[in-house]
Amino acid sequence: MLRARLVLVSRVLRCQRSIGALLEKDNVPTPAELPALPRLQAALHAEQHALLKTQIRRLEHELRDRVLPTPEAQRLVWIPGIGAMVAYLLLLEIDDIGRFPTVRQFHSYCRLVPGANDSAASRRHKRSRDGNRYLKLAFHHAAVRAVQYVPEIRAESQRLVRRKGKAIARALIAKELGSIVYHVLTRQEAFNGRFRGLQLTRAKSRRWPRLASPPA
Prior knowledge:
Layout: H1 2-26, H2 36-67, H3 71-76, H4 84-94, H5 103-109, E1 115-118, E2 123-126, H6 133-149, H7 151-164, H8 166-187, E3 194-195, E4 198-199
Antiparallel strand pairs: 1-2, 3-4
Helix pairs in contact: 1-2, 4-6, 6-7, 6-8, 7-8
């Protein structure tokens, strides 16, 4: 169901881009100012957009009652950048954290480390296509959110961007979040509020419901 949700989300974005393309083509700010036929086309995209959003909400409501009350989900939603839907995706795609004896193996499965393209005299990194692409997507999404909302992670990201560039900085933030998730699930303990040795000053509030202590 979560993979089906990702398909629906991609279709929502496609509708938004289609409407934007129509507006750009006629150089107008709103669909109401389009000529008749493009205006009809934009209206059809808008109707499809509304229907897809309704279907996404139905899926999320069904998953919330099934997954959110579990101890594992309650531990994950306290980690920076990880909301309810990312927590669901992580739990259902990981399945059993015991499958990964080490955090390095977990990183590899989540595509959080580059692949190798070695020759006789050189070693180059490349994007790995091994592992689970949905977990990579989830961790990179969480990295973006963590940088937006947590000052210490934002400062660490800016430092990494200056040294290594934007893409590698995001990958390193995602990898650190992967390490946190691995240890939280493996040890079955709450997030300790630290990121790359830094104590975070911003904590999440209790919502929808985010419990202070997960059920046993």
